[in-house]
């Protein structure tokens, strides 16, 4: 009888322990995105502030916005770029062109992911290996505005880090297609591998 009672008590304790651990895990996961809008706004504002005085950053207006808009509008109207490697090309893609591009994209840094969680990339490994990884083929109208804006200022071989505000990314609603939370600032590492000019160049298979 005693063994049966102890067994029942052990089962209850294990159940409570499992429930507690699950609850903690859920709270930790939920906390990762607490105050997400405010945290993303703060991150973008900090990058915009640095870009004003740091020559390693370049501020570029979204290509979809009016030519009359200068560089003094809201921070969400611009992408912020660090040029990591200069290419050797002499042509920047236009809106109707097709490109091949290596990329990874992550969220802003969090406690769990100090460098930002990478939620999508064009290559398989943890780092890009250009000798084996095939760059994504895409038209500029098929990607978010911030990504396309960057491409339109790059030449073949350029490697950039690009900070894209939610307004030029996936917007202020949770994306059911990608799982990207609303108001997410996106941080791209991207390298333009090839450009196919509209109705001029042949879009051949890679390599």
Structural notes for this entry:
It is a single chain. The protein is α+β, with helices and mostly antiparallel strands. The chain has one domain: Chitinase A, domain 3. The protein contains three helices and seven strands; from the N terminus they run ααβββββαββ.
Approximately what portion of the residues adopt beta-strand conformation? 15-25%
- The CATH architecture designation is Roll
Pick out the low-confidence regions.
1-28
Note the quaternary state here.
Answer: single chain
Q: What fraction, in percent, of the residue positions are helical? A: 25-40%
Secondary structure class reads alpha+beta
Let me know the average pLDDT. 87
Number of helices: 3
Distance between the termini: 75 Å
What spatial form do the alpha-carbon principal axes imply? globular
Biggest sheet record? 7 strands, antiparallel
String of helices and strands: HHEEEEEHEE
Annotate the secondary structure layout:
Layout: H1 2-31, H2 36-53, E1 57-61, E2 78-85, E3 98-106, E4 118-121, E5 136-139, H3 145-151, E6 159-164, E7 186-196
Antiparallel strand pairs: 1-2, 2-6, 3-4, 3-5, 3-7, 6-7
């Amino acid at each position: 009888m005693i063994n049966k009672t102890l067994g029942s008590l052990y089962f209850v304790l294990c159940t409570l322990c499992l429930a507690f651990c699950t609850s903690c895990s859920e709270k930790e996961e939920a906390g990762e995105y607490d105050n997400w809008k405010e945290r993303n706004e703060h991150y973008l504002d900090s990058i915009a502030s640095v870009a004003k005085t740091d020559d390693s950053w370049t501020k570029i207006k979204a290509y979809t916005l009016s030519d009359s808009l200068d560089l003094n509008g809201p921070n969400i109207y611009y992408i912020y770029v660090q040029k990591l490697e200069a290419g050797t090309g002499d042509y920047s893609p236009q809106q109707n062109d097709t490109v091949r591009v290596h990329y990874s994209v992550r969220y802003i840094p969090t406690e769990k992911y100090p460098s930002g969680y990478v939620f999508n990339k064009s290559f398989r490994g943890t780092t890009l290996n250009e000798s084996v990884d095939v760059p994504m083929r895409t038209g500029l109208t098929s990607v978010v505005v911030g990504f396309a804006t960057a491409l339109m200022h790059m030449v073949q071989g350029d490697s950039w880090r690009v900070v894209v505000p939610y307004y030029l990314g996936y917007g202020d609603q949770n994306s059911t297609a990608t799982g990207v939370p609303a108001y997410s600032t996106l941080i791209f590492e991207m390298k333009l591998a090839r450009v196919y000019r509209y109705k001029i160049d042949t879009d051949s298979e890679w390599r």
